Amino acid sequence: MGDPADHRQLVSILASDLSWLEDHCRRQPALSKEASQLRLAGALVRNSVGPFLENEAKTPLHIAVVGGAGAGKSTIVNFLVGDKVAEANPQAGYTRHPTAYIPANSSTTWTGHLGFLGSLRKLEVPSPANLDEDVYQVRRVEPTALGDVVIWDCPDMTTWAAGGYLARLIEVTGLADVIVYVASDERYNDEVPTQFLHMLVRSGKALVVVLTKMHETNSRQLIEHFEREILSRLPKAPSGKPAVPVLAVPFLALDQLADPARKAIAHRIPLINQVMVLTDAATARKRAVDHALQYLSTAGGDLLEVARKDLNALEAWKAMIRYSRQHFDARYRGEFLDGEGFRRFDEARERLLNLIELPGAGRGFAMVMWGLRLPYRALRSVIVKALIRPPAVNIGEAQVLEGAFRAWMDQLRAESIRHADEHALWKHVATGFNSGLGDTATKQFQGLLRSFQVSSADEIEAAARGVTAGLEKNPAGLIVLRGVKLFLDALAIGLAIWAGGFQWYTLIVIPIFVSSFHQVVELIVRQFVEAKRSAIRSRKMTIVSQTVSSPLAEWLTVWPATGGSAYEKLQVALRRVPETIAKIKDLAEPRLRS
């Protein structure tokens, strides 16, 4: 089975996570029912699965008697014990803690395993049932017809928000191998006890239903009505009847209630027989553990649904971060990148044009060609100044980023205030902005900005150098380009002479042809450099996203779930619970199948 420390640690982790989720739900009144479901899951881990992995003895088996207020639970406890040991009380909710009735000859080693009954402690002296504390008491009785069993008299099931005593009831149901559910004729269809019954069936507990307090002539009719109205949605046996057996105990005379073993035999024996079927020592404990593991595995997702509202709030926060980050990136692109010329590329363009001119002895020819193009350059300069508005002074990159960051924070602050009444997470964020979140985010942003500026400057310098660096390292390619440029200049002069002949106006035509051909070369070079400039714009956008907006968005996304907040613990619990259930099931399977 592996190292015992392994399963002890897993059981402890799972029980702890389920308890934390339960407490988290109980802080939200609307989730009282869901909190109780988590309490039952934790009780199954602590009191059924955990002891089984500790090689707990097969006996004693535990039988829990549960039901709504005034259902007649004490009567059924007395039936099971065979004596009047549990005192009935007309006050609803009188029983506030569980009482265990065990045979005088039975051991109590079942109380010794780690985590037994959660926070409940054993009372050392008998106390009244209305003691409202996290306790249980053990009372010795004469051996019963059921053998080595513990019979639990439990607090009433009246409302999901019943406070501490409901948790004590659920803790015992997690321990129980068999549950006897009691419902009276007057209140058998009460909503909360019925929901509780469905929860027990879903958890796989072996169940017997006992209907009480009807006239004996109406017992058959009441059983049929109960099966039709209450058990209709419960699992069915192959026969088509409800898988949960239903018995009836009608109104009894006082002498029958005082001596059930002798004077209520007709109603007690069917109950004893039905319970004995479910308390076979060879199979009952394994069945309880097996069903508990199946319930934990199959219902794990549903158990975690209690956190859906919290998860939805976290998802809404993440969506807001993504949306505001897109605004940050768009503002950087629109206010800086689209208007930034990156003048280092203008210098790179001039270097490239000079690089493809003839060097050395051919420099004289290049200077002549430069002179021929001088009138065109002067005219082009005049036209450009007249028709094209000078570029606007672009706002500094750091200023744009800082402005976009402030707008981002202002948007998040406004949204958190607007949604503060919808969920505690938004209120947590709004409170954070009032207690240093903005300052902490600013420090985070400034650190990211410094890293970006260093890497960005290096990227621009490298890209600008790359415009000519490739040619400078490729002499053969450079010779080809210079040859092409020389051919175009010569072709321009030749065409000009051919067009003008040997006339005086040919001196005017030659500069025009030379300038036109050179303009074609300039356009090609300009397109090449503009492609490099566009690439660095895209690269800059990528760098901003990778080094500034993305890390900042990630930091803001996880901020509500850091620093020991409830949302941090929530995420840890939601991740660990399914994993731990699977590991515990793997450890238990070999023993269950042996």
Describe the structure.
With 594 residues, the protein is of the alpha/beta class. The chain folds into two domains: 57-280, 3-Layer(aba) Sandwich (Rossmann fold), CATH 3.40.50; 309-561, no CATH class. It has 21 helices and eight strands. The chain has helices at residues 4-26, 32-53, 73-81, 164-175, 191-202, 219-229, 254-258, 260-263, 265-278, 284-298, 300-303, 308-335, 344-355, 363-372, 374-387, 397-418, 424-434, 437-472, 475-500, 506-558, 566-593; strands at 61-67, 99-103, 121-122, 135-141, 149-153, 178-184, 206-212, 246-249. Strands 3-4-2-5-1-6-7-8 form an eight-stranded mixed beta sheet, with helices on both faces. Helix 12 (308-335) packs antiparallel against helix 20. It starts with a helix and ends with a helix.
Basic shape? rod-shaped
How many strands in all? 8
Total number of helices: 21
Span of the ends, CA to CA: 12 Å
Care to give the gist of this entry?
With 594 residues, the protein is α/β, with parallel strands linked by helices.
Question: What's the helix and strand layout?
Answer:
Elements: H1 4-26, H2 32-53, E1 61-67, H3 73-81, E2 99-103, E3 121-122, E4 135-141, E5 149-153, H4 164-175, E6 178-184, H5 191-202, E7 206-212, H6 219-229, E8 246-249, H7 254-258, H8 260-263, H9 265-278, H10 284-298, H11 300-303, H12 308-335, H13 344-355, H14 363-372, H15 374-387, H16 397-418, H17 424-434, H18 437-472, H19 475-500, H20 506-558, H21 566-593
Parallel strand pairs: 1-5, 1-6, 2-4, 3-4, 6-7, 7-8
Antiparallel strand pairs: 2-5
Helix pairs in contact: 1-2, 1-21, 2-4, 2-10, 10-21, 12-16, 12-20, 13-18, 13-20, 16-17, 16-18, 18-20, 19-20
